[in-house]
Specification:
The chain is of the alpha/beta class. It is built from 19 helices and 21 strands. The protein has 3 domains: 168 residues, no CATH class; 227 residues, FAD/NAD(P)-binding domain (3-Layer(bba) Sandwich); 155 residues, 3-Layer(bba) Sandwich (FAD/NAD(P)-binding domain), CATH 3.50.50. 32% of the residues lie in helices and 14% in strands. Strands 3-2-1-7-19 form a 5-stranded parallel sheet, covered by helices on one side. Strands 8-17-9-10-13 form a 5-stranded parallel sheet, covered by helices on one side. The protein has a 4-stranded mixed sheet with strand order 6-5-4-18, with no helix packed on it. Strand 15 and strand 16 form a beta hairpin. It is globular. The relative contact order is 0.13. The structure holds NADP nicotinamide-adenine-dinucleotide phosphate. The site of NADP nicotinamide-adenine-dinucleotide phosphate has 25 residues, from helix 9. GO terms for molecular function: flavin adenine dinucleotide binding; N,N-dimethylaniline monooxygenase activity; NADP binding.
């Protein structure tokens, strides 16, 4: 899909249009029916903001919010009685709002916002208020830089390069535009979207709810599903690009191949391959990398791979001409990508062989593939800020998420789990597996992981994966792959599996940050040689000796069980704009992280990771690098990262 494929459905091409709701014309009964589907805590908060009615924040309606287990407590754990009362009050409030002619939502006073948060989240929530204003105070874009380059005459002529135009690159571009900076976005593909442009495999969709997996400054109200499919997400990004007006700054089909710091010019020499194959060289004072983390396909070097005469396709490099119909297909891998591909294709193929090394833990998500309930869609489209409160509420539920369940208790003695909480989570997931494979004990044995939950990414399941494995034309192969021949995959037990098409859902070169970009910093230092396969950064953003370079999705920023990558990349971009403000306002030309805070920060991160299931467990995962260090993962809560990146610390940098 490209922008040209989009039907011209948008009559208002402004960012504000994302938040716009329709006036209510529904009957009392229709309103009551919609409220039946509502996420009640978020609806009460949105209506309290809209109507300022204290009855909506009564103590008896306060969600107890039990900690997350394998499941999330519906309605924040409210009793049936409290839910009924909340529905009645919400319906009445909406009817009154309709009868008053749907007036504009008032800007809430700080005291009133405080009260809502006290109700929804907790007392003593000061650490949350900035974030709340960022998220729900609609008329005011709290993430905006709050400065303009014209404020600093000495900064005139400053140029910034952004590499990549996925979620993070689009965010960076938008914030740079707000600051009035001269910027260029380089995109290697022929369209924006990053992984959501590249991944078009059958069944591709989100496995993080899209309220969280979307941009704070572009809160779409008309998602059709909670875990949207790839076309809807790409379409969202195309809309964001159009509505932010950043399109003219984006150079597609242009891959940046190298960055070289030019000390004399205090700028990066950026070399990019242009659509006609020639090299384009240009200097930029600052560079923001937004190259993603999970986008350079890893295809294992299976012996004999070159001799295989059939088709081989990687999940992230799916081609429209790949036809699975009637073929003998091998699906290698059982990670998040395979989990979506397998159930989508098995009914079309003559035979599907799933090659599994380690089974994943599955999180029960019965509504995974469902459309959003009509009532929720109606509320999103008619109640100002409801979507933003749903997002904030989900953020709060997920801010610690299942972190407490993946923390090592050194005193805990168990061959698999690492703490009592981890064992409770394991038992919940085991119960689901036992139920799903009750009729197939042979498959149950193979589908049961022998490592603690949280050591690898847990996958959402609504029953489709087990259903696929049980199908007559599907075989689960658990022996290792020894080699490939002309038309078969051979396993270590001597078996030969004849196939026509191999789908490698074998993941990405996740440990090689910024691969394959060549980055030469101060004194000719090569960044990849400096890292030597063990990537680190200060806040996941900067590396000493590589001034004026800011990363998004950098080392140790990946969230495992508590949040969304979009949230962290927005933190990184907003932090970068704070850094730029400091540098430009003070008339500096370079900003370089000091080695001491970099080392201290990384020691702190390593300490946090060391006690987490993903570091403790021996099992393989993309969270660890070749040396076994968890170099991809952020080990704390999301609020901690938000607060950490909320301020640029000049004392941690050399400014010149
Ligand atoms: P992945 O999680 O790295 O899984 C790769 C799979 O390939 C694993 O099952 C792995 O086995 C297997 N594998 C790797 N090398 C192999 C070999 N030599 N022989 C046999 N099997 C091999 O990759 P992914 O599924 O593409 O997912 C990567 C990440 O992308 C996810 O964790 C997620 O963060 C993101 N993602 C998100 C979505 C979404 O939001 N909807 C969808 C897809 C991906 P082992 O388990 O034994 O290592």
């Amino acid at each position: 899909m490209t922008e040209g494929d989009l039907p011209p459905t948008l009559d208002d091409d402004t960012l504000a249009a994302f938040d716009r709701v329709q006036p209510i014309a529904a009957s009392d009964a229709e309103i009551e029916a919609a409220v039946r589907d509502a996420d009640l805590p978020a609806l009460l908060a949105a209506l309290a903001m809209l109507t300022q009615d204290p009855a909506l924040l009564a103590d008896e309606l306060k969600p107890p919010s039990p900690s997350m287990t394998a499941r999330i407590a519906p309605q924040g754990g409210l009793s049936a009685e409290a839910q009924a009362k909340a529905r009645t009050l919400a319906t009445q409030a909406l009817i009154r709002y309709r009868d008053a002619g749907c007036p504009e939502a008032p800007t809430p006073s700080p005291e009133w916002l405080d009260r809502i948060v006290q109700f929804l989240i907790r007392d003593g929530h000061e650490d949350l208020m900035d974030l709340l204003r960022h998220e729900v105070n609609v008329p005011d874009d709290r993430g905006a830089p709050g400065w303009h380059v014209s404020d600093f005459p000495q900064a005139a002529g400053t140029k910034v390069a952004v590499i990549g135009s996925g979620f993070a690159g689009i965010t960076a571009a938008y914030r740079l535009k707000q600051a009035g900076l001269d910027f260029t976005v380089f995109e290697k593909n022929r369209e924006i979207g990053g992984v959501w442009w590249e991944n078009t495999y059958p069944g591709c969709r989100l496995d993080t709810p899209n309220f969280a997996y979307s941009l704070s400054f572009a809160q779409k109200q008309d998602w059709t599903q909670q875990f949207s499919q790839q076309p809807e997400i790409l379409r969202y990004l195309l809309d964001v690009v159009r509505r932010t007006g950043i399109r003219p700054h984006i150079r597609v089909n242009t891959e940046v191949e190298s960055l070289e710091f030019d000390e004399d010019q205090a700028a990066w020499k950026v070399t990019a391959r242009t659509p006609d194959g020639s090299a384009h060289v240009e200097h930029f004072h600052f560079v923001i990398t937004a190259m993603g983390l999970l986008n350079r396909p890893h295809i294992p070097d299976f012996p004999g791979l070159a001799s295989f005469k059939g088709e081989v396709v990687h999940s992230a490099a799916w081609r429209p001409d790949v036809n699975v119909k009637g073929k003998r297909v091998a699906l290698i891998g059982t990670g998040a990508s395979a989990f979506q591909i397998g159930p989508e294709i098995y009914a079309q193929v003559s035979r599907l062989s799933v090659f599994q090394r380690n089974p994943p833990w599955m999180l029960p998500t019965p509504t995974y593939h469902d459309d959003l309930k009509p009532g929720i869609r109606w509320l999103l489209g008619h109640v100002p800020s409801y979507g933003r409160w749903v997002r904030f509420w989900q953020f709060w539920i997920g801010v610690e998420g299942r972190l407490h369940l993946v923390e090592l208790d050194p005193a805990w003695q168990h061959p698999v789990s690492i703490s009592a909480g981890n064992e409770a989570l394991r038992q919940e997931c085991l119960a689901m597996l036992q139920q799903q494979f009750a009729d197939r004990p042979d498959l149950l044995a193979h589908a049961t992981p022998d490592y603690p939950p949280g050591a690898k990414r847990m996958l959402r399941d609504n029953g489709t994966w087990p259903q696929m494995l049980k199908a007559g034309n599907v075989g689960l192969v658990t022996q290792g792959i020894s080699h490939l021949s002309e038309n078969a995959i051979h396993t270590t037990d001597g078996q030969r599996h004849e196939v026509d098409l191999i789908i490698c859902a074998t993941g990405f070169k996740a440990a090689d940050f910024l691969y394959p970009l060549k980055v030469t910093g101060r004194a000719g230092q090569d960044l990849h040689r400096h890292w030597d396969g063990d990537c680190r950064a200060y806040l996941g953003i900067s590396v000493p000796g590589f001034p004026n370079l800011f990363m998004t999705s950098g080392p140790n920023t990946g969230v495992v069980v508590n949040g969304s990558a979009i949230f962290s990349s927005e933190c990184q971009v907003e932090y970068t704009l704070r850094a730029l403000r400091h540098v430009l306002s003070q008339g500096h030309r370079t900003v370089d992280c000091r080695p001491e805070p970099y080392a201290q920060y990384n020691a702190w991160i390593d300490q946090g990771n060391e006690t987490k299931a993903w570091a403790v467990a021996k099992t393989s995962s993309w969270y660890k690098n070749k040396s076994g260090r968890a170099a991809q993962t952020w080990p704390f809560g999301m609020l901690e990262y938000w607060n950490l990146t909320a301020r640029f610390r000049p004392e941690d940098h050399v400014l010149a």
